[in-house]
């Protein structure tokens, strides 16, 4: 069994896209894949099909039903804010111990491959005391960090890498997902990141590229 945590440098960077494509790649190769996105904000049950949860369930070949949604995402909130803020709007809270226990239970029971997708970036607050980084630390499984190519991504990405390393988490790969409309040269961004990434493999992902499938094959081989 292999478990991977997919995190990012921020929101809307491409975590779900990476998770979906990895799931489809592995299933196409005959592997058994499970996936979770335990904490979700901005969730509207009326639009579940086009939500991140709907995308993951479709990739897994499972129906997009309330039962399946609850199974992969027990902590769902309506407002598109950080989990701590979204939960307060509903007079609720993310129980960090329960979240860690839920995740560890899924890791222990997974038959083959398990992807756990985080929420937002590495340092997004989950409650008044814990961040996504604390969640990853509690699980202590390898991490894939997804970054963008927008102006400012270098600082965000290097800060995230530093935070992960300080917690002694294994970073299997840094995936630079091209930001739509960015005027920053993708190749130069990747070159700079490789300088600071040390031994962490840096992969380039252009969604519309004919080489996108090869990029996911390379990523899958690292995990």
Key traits:
single chain, 223 residues, alpha/beta, 6-stranded parallel sheet, two-stranded parallel ribbon, 43% helix
Give a short summary of the structure.
The chain is of the alpha/beta class.
Describe the structure.
- The structure is a single chain.
- With 223 residues, the chain is of the alpha/beta class.
- Helix content is 43%, strand content 16%.
- A 6-stranded parallel sheet has the order 2-5-1-6-7-8, sandwiched between helices.
- Helix 7 links the parallel strand 6 and strand 7.
- Helix 1 runs parallel beside helix 2 (52-60).
- It starts with a strand and ends with a helix.
- The mean pLDDT is 95.
The major pleated sheet works out as: 6 strands, parallel
Strand content: 15-25%
Please report the distance between the alpha carbons of the first and last residues. 11 Å
Mean pLDDT, nearest integer? 95
Based on secondary structure, the structural category is: alpha/beta
Sum up the overall morphology in one term. Answer: globular
- N to C succession of SSEs: EHEEHHEHHEHEHEHEH
Low-confidence stretches: none
Give helix % range: 40-55%
The number of E-state strands comes to 8
Strand order of the largest sheet: 2-5-1-6-7-8
Please, how many helices? 9
User: Radius of gyration over alpha carbons?
Assistant: 17 Å
């Amino acid at each position: 069994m292999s478990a991977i945590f997919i995190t990012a440098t921020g929101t809307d960077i491409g975590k779900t896209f990476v998770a979906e494509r990895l799931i489809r790649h592995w299933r196409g190769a005959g592997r058994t894949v499970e996936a979770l996105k335990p904490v979700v904000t901005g969730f509207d049950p009326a639009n579940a099909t086009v939500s991140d949860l709907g995308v993951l369930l479709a990739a897994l070949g499972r129906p997009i039903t309330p039962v399946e949604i609850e199974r992969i995402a027990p902590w769902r909130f309506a407002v598109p804010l950080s989990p701590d803020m979204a939960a307060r709007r509903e007079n609720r809270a993310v129980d960090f111990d329960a979240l860690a226990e839920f995740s560890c239970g899924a890791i222990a029971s997974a038959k083959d491959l398990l992807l756990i997708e985080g929420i937002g970036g590495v340092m997004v607050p989950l409650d008044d005391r814990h961040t996504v980084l604390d969640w990853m630390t509690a699980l202590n499984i390898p991490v894939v960090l997804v970054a963008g190519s927008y102006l400012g991504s270098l600082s965000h990405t290097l800060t995230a890498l530093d935070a992960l390393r300080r917690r002694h988490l294994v970073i299997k790969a840094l995936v630079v997902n091209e930001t739509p409309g960015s005027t920053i040269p993708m190749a130069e961004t990747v070159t700079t990141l490789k300088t600071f990434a040390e031994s962490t493999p840096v992969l380039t992902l252009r969604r519309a590229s004919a080489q996108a499938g090869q990029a996911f094959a390379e990523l899958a081989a690292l995990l």
